[in-house]
């Protein structure tokens, strides 16, 4: 792991297109990305930019951070700081106020061309696990951590992780995330523990592999280990 240190900066609205680009580059070639979210194009890019903008401007729990190297956006992190232990009840209320769970509404929740059934299976597990495991308590969520491929291996992701974990330690709260196989070893080094995993069988959607995502928890500083 690189020992490089970087200045952590806030994300601006002008960064959102670059974030969408980095996501596409970071997940390029992964079967799960291609099958579930379809190939990136101008429509999917605009969809993602608008979703990021909504999080940046309308969600008070969201905290974006970035590292810039040589004038280029090298990596970003999206955190959600839940200091209200009833955060999950507020989310349920928003869903109820959203009206009927129609197919048209479901389609609008995912990028154009996405496999809606696969998205529902994956995100159903993801949001369900967050509610089941973290509902009723304060916590910090790592929703997204990506590094531009050309800057991988230079400590960018670690710097962004340390920045967010310092916030969790300030409030003495646990941190939750869902890890891909690529990110899993890094999170283990930072003290995250396996809680549960989800295997998405891509053969059901025309693929040939099983994509595993691991729900991981980093206990609060004041938590006592059960080991």
Taking all residues together, what is the mean pLDDT? 90
Say how many strands there are: 7
Work out the helicity level: 40-55%
**Gyration radius, to the nearest Å?**
17 Å
The CATH superfamily is identified as Gcn5-related N-acetyltransferase (GNAT)
GO molecular function, one term: acyltransferase activity, transferring groups other than amino-acyl groups
Organism: Coccidioides posadasii (strain C735)
Region (Disordered): 92-112
Keywords: Transferase
Which properties best describe this structure?
single chain; Aminopeptidase; 41% helix; 7 strands; 8 helices; 7-stranded mixed sheet; 227 residues; alpha+beta
What does this structure look like?
With 227 residues, the chain is α+β, with helices and mostly antiparallel strands. It has a single domain, classed as Gcn5-related N-acetyltransferase (GNAT) (Aminopeptidase, 3-Layer(aba) Sandwich), CATH 3.40.630.30. The protein has eight helices and seven strands. It has helices at residues 16-26, 31-37, 42-58, 87-97, 103-108, 116-134, 156-171, 184-189; strands at 9-10, 62-69, 72-82, 139-147, 175-179, 193-201, 210-218. A hairpin with a 2-residue loop joins strand 2 (62-69) and strand 3. Helix 1 (16-26) packs across helix 3. Residues 96-105 have low confidence and may be disordered.
């Amino acid at each position: 792991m690189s020992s490089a240190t970087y200045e952590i900066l806030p994300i601006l609205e002008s960064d959102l297109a670059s974030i969408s680009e980095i996501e596409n580059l970071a997940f390029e070639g992964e079967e799960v990305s291609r099958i579930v979210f379809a190939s990136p194009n101008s429509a999917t890019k605009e969809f993602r930019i608008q979703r990021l903008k909504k999080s940046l401007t309308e969600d008070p729990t969201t905290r974006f951070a970035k590292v810039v190297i040589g004038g280029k956006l090298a990596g970003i992190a999206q955190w959600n700081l839940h200091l209200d232990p009833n955060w999950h009840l507020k989310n349920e209320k928003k869903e109820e106020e959203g009206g009927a769970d129609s197919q048209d509404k479901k389609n609008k929740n995912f990028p154009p061309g996405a496999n809606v059934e696969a998205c529902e299976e994956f995100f159903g597990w993801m949001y369900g696990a967050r509610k089941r495991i973290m509902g009723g308590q304060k916590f910090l969520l790592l929703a997204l951590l990506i590094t531009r491929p050309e800057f991988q291996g230079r400590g960018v992701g670690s710097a962004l992780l340390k920045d967010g974990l310092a916030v969790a330690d300030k409030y003495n709260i646990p941190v939750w995330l869902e890890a891909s196989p690529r990110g899993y070893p890094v999170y283990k080094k930072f003290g995250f523990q396996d809680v549960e995993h989800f295997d998405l069988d891509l053969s059901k959607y025309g693929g040939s592999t099983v994509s595993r995502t691991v729900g991981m928890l980093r206990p609060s500083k004041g938590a006592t280990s059960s080991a």
